[in-house]
Amino acid sequence: MKINRWFVVLIVFAMFASAFSSFPMQTFANTGKVIIHYQEAPNNTKDWNLWIWPEGGEGKAYDFTGEDAFGKVAEIEIPTNTKKVGFIVRTDTWEKDGEDRWVDIQNGEGEVWIKSGDNTVYNEPPDGEYRDLPSYENVKVTIHYARYDKNYKDWDLWVWPDGKSGQAVQFKDEDDFGKVATFELNDPQGIQKVGFIARQSINGNEWGNKELDNRYITKFKEDGSAEIWIAQGIERVFYDPSQIDLNPKIVGATIDKMNEITLQTNVPFAIEEADNSGITLEGVEIKEVIPLNKEEKTTNKVRVVTKNNLDLTKAYKISKSLFGSATVEIGAAVRSKEFDDMFYYDGNDLGNTYKKDKTSFRLWAPTATEAKLVSYKKWDSTSGTEIPLKKAERGTWTTQLKGNQDGLIYTYKVKIGDKWNEAVDPYARAVTVNGDKGVVVDLKTTNPEKWLAKKPFLKNREDAIIYELHVRDLSIDPNSGIKNKGKFLGVTEEGTRGPGGVKTGLDHIKDLGVTHVQFIPIYDYRTVDETKLNEPQYNWGYDPKNYNVPEGSYSTNPYEPKVRIKEMKQMVQSLHKNNLRVIMDVVYNHMYAVSESNFNELVPGYYFRYNEDGTLANGTGVGNDTASERKMMRKFIVDSVKYWATEYNLDGFRFDLMGIHDVETMKEVRDALNKIDPSIIVLGEGWDLNTPLPADQKANQKNANKMPGVAHFNDVIRDGLKGSVFYDEDSGFVNGKQGMEDTMKKSIAGGLQYDSSTSTYQDPEQVVTYVEAHDNHTLWDKLLLTNPNATELERKQMHKLASSMVLTSQGVSFIHAGQEFMRTKGGDHNSYKSPDSVNQLDWERRLAFNQEVEYMKGLIEIRKKYPVFRMTTASEIRQNLSFLNAPKNVVAYTLEGKNKNQLTIIHNANSNEIKMKVSSKGNLSLLVDGKKAGTKSIKKIKSDNVTVPAFSTFILEGNTFRK
Residue 84: which of 131, 121, 115 has the closest Cα? Predict the structure, then answer.
């Protein structure tokens, strides 16, 4: 006998209490639709498509599916319940039109309009442009409305044609789904969409209660009719009732405290104290069941409190009468202090420990009920040999394999609840191609000949002059003269020459005179396919996959696990041999996606930071923040940094988005490195990011006083010099902004006197002074935006003035690769996936800008010669740096060194020359004049007055008066 399922549902509804208050419910459809309208630039010749990803998930390429009067159109089904979807307009070679954009699809469908060259995401066609939707003079609409509480008393609809007045419509019919309202609307000018609100009259007030905000009907049949289904608390408008699941069921059960489970159903039920509302938990005694809102008597979400703490290593089944049963998942309990205290493991043997006669394995997975080591024969094997792991102390699992396991390919499998997850060992030190499996290696066999020779001397961290570089950018230009293009080994090549015989690669960096090379990510990252290296691919690498392994695309053979390790060591060794220290950019603040993170596969919910409502924190802007405040995440970060510092002999670590981390983690990193080598530099982006950490615990500039020995990028001097990086046409001191003298003075003095609401630097080694980096526009491109009418010579002078101020300020100096020859990316301010043509170091430009390179070399030479540019304490700066009275838009000061020898520095940001009295004694040596720079005197100045050209820096050596 066939029974109508809606009839069964209504019988179940009749069992529930009628008293009920409105609340948000889960949408049960497992897909969402994204509609993107894209208007190309005129005369476009590029083949644009879309890269789309659900918030917190993995991305995928999609083609545009059609065209309308506005431009290209893509209609894409997204298999996810996410509320937001990100997208990028791009080509297959990752040329991008605009930046990352987002579509809101929490009602199941999102539609946006975008225009080439305009980063705005429009929810309606921009500028009143034509929307290619059919228009009807008459529409007939049927709305089916289901309420879980079956209480339709005084509910009706308020409806309106878009942009016109509304009217009330009553529910006059009913069917198996619920109540039904049918109405017609007429408009001679045409109707394209119809808005509606479900509302309830209370005590005569027609708007006493309403459900959700404005919603719209946009799909009509050819005759102008439309039929939709809506359900209580669900925002999505359904055009197909089969997409709504109203069968009573448990939709979520998570352990959120050590003795508490949060249970959620799709249909509300009455709270009955006598029998705990019909809820049972297999093998556990329930103390009480409490609705989240204690005043509610009917709800769909309750807290199930147990008499004793739950065992997080067990799989529990929870049941509710009429709703069935479900496996309880681990929820917020793993993020509790009790969890950390119970399972923190402080041993040094996580991962694999190799010896020639045996290899030991230890995995931390405290919420797993079973765990296995899986060994594979080849990198692309789909099945392997499973070896059970034994449960050990503090949530760890162990086993030991006898014999020489050098080259063993392996993963871990863990059973979480009733599901098996497989993942790469987070502590793996070697991996297969694309990092999909871990590998055991004898690390001694990866050492180059004469490995760990003496590294370059560094007396004080303030002596560092950092050169930020991408491995591929250095050598990939066809004119680089480098054989191993885009590789670690390309950095090791000496004697390479480019156009006109200019030095390239390593020789160029060495000739420049910097002390440190800082590589943007060189660990194993996600978004370059190492099996397709003959195809054009590019990424900066801020999407970590395996933290303790070098990136395979920079090796000559990513299929051989040891090659990438040895070749990265060769690169470090070569730089050390050439008197250059090495800093590694580390990105412990987020991963590519939570859904595929090895951390989350092994211990779901632990390693990432969550908001109070259970959603992932997103201070990083990529959908996930790691939780450094948790003991095992903090331990991983510290262990990882120690590993790189010792195994690869690195000299520094640059922490991406350091403000996501907590103060204690960064202090532990600093302390651990001090024990290895106190000269190792720790620097990072100390931005104040919107992540749910207490303000006094964030590792940002405002808390710099709590993190001695940790340096922060100084965005005050960066933006003060050239203008805000967030506003293209905003200018700074060197390119026309007035009234910047005080900001520049404080910045030149190391930022130690900034307002505490900005930063709390205590020592010049805590301040990284810079004007450009890999992020945002290059300085040259910024000057093109802010000063479009300036001559090229004027822009060159502004550029040199900014670099001069960076290299003569107190703190740690930082230069972006190519800054010395005024690097351009053609206006691309976010070139993280842009092609080589945008990102490569252009050695033709190096030749053309030879005079500017020589100027930068001279500034570096001066900084290295005179210790007064590199003072090591705040008191020393206060004692030896004195600002002089100077004309408007000029900053001038003296630095007094040993033997009372003085340097006078004048920065003139005016578009005209200025005259300034500098001495009552004469006989000054001019070292920098805005065109030339170096330690040798350009000329002697005997007059008490000097004339400083427009947009120029003067540096004079000799005794001058101080005022």
Answer: 121
Statement to judge: residues 386 and 438 lie in one domain: yes
| Catalytic residue status for 685 | yes
> What is the helix, strand, coil percentage profile of the chain, to 5?
25, 30, 45
Q: How many CA atoms lie within 13 A of 781 on its CB side?
A: 21
- Tell me, what's the pLDDT at 94? 65
Q: Answer yes or no: do 535 and 643 share one domain.
A: yes
- Provide CB contacts within 8 A for 260, sequence distance 6+: 303, 304, 305, 306, 333
Q: Do both 783 and 805 map to the same domain?
A: yes
Tell whether 263 and 193 lie within a shared domain: no
Residue 107 and residue 178 in one domain: no
User: What 3-state DSSP class applies to 191?
Assistant: strand
* 583: β partners: 518, 652
Which of these is catalytic: 468, 656, 662, 929? 656
Domain C-terminal end among 764, 792, 823: 823
Same domain, 415 and 317: no
Q: What is the CATH number of the domain that holds 45?
A: 2.60.40.1110
Rg of the chain, C-alpha, whole Å: 32
Domain that includes residue 296, residue range: 250-330
Number of independent structural domains in the chain: 5
Cβ burial, residue 928 (10 Å; 0-12/13-18/19+): buried
The C-alpha atoms of residue 694 and residue 618 are separated, in whole angstroms, by 15
Q: Is the dihedral of CA 431, 432, 433, 436 positive or negative?
A: negative
- Which is it for the CA torsion 656, 454, 457, 678, positive or negative? positive
The whole-number mean pLDDT for each consecutive block of 10 residues of the chain, a chain of 963 residues, reads 33 32 36 86 86 75 87 83 80 75 77 88 71 83 89 94 92 94 94 93 90 86 94 80 80 92 86 86 93 79 94 90 91 95 97 98 96 98 97 97 98 93 98 98 97 94 98 98 98 98 98 98 96 93 97 98 98 98 98 92 96 86 92 98 98 98 98 98 97 97 98 98 95 97 98 96 98 97 97 98 98 98 96 95 98 98 98 97 96 88 95 88 88 96 90 90 46
C-beta separation of 607 from 660 below 8 A: no
Same domain, 313 and 326: yes
Decide: helix, strand or coil at residue 223: coil
Rounded to 5°, the CA angle 606-702-714 comes to 105
685, 715, 852, 861: the catalytic one is: 685
- 535 as an active site residue: the answer is no
Q: Residue 847: phi, psi to the nearest 5?
A: -65, -45
Q: Tell me if 169 is assigned to some domain.
A: yes
- CATH assignment of the domain containing 410: 2.60.40.10
CA–CA separation, 144 vs 861, rounded Å? 78
Q: Phi first, then psi: what are they for 947, rounded to 5°?
A: -110, 115
- Do 347 and 305 have their domain in common? no
Q: Is 212 exposed, middle or buried (0-12, 13-18, 19+ CB in 10 A)?
A: middle
Indicate the angle between helix axes 792-807 and 779-786, nearest 10 degrees: 130
Task: Give the model confidence (pLDDT) of 250-288 as tens digits.
Answer: 988 999 999 999 998 877 788 887 788 899 999 999 999
**Domain's final residue, options 187, 211, 243:** 243
Tokens 């939570």, residue located: 594
Please give the structure tokens belonging to residue 195.
Answer: 């808005």
pLDDT of residue 778: 98
Please state whether beta strands 49-54 and 84-90 pair in parallel, antiparallel, or not at all (unpaired).
antiparallel
pLDDT at 378: 97
Q: Examine residue 392 and state whether it is found in any structural domain, yes or no.
A: yes
Evaluate the CA torsion angle 795, 798, 804, 806 in order and state its sign.
negative
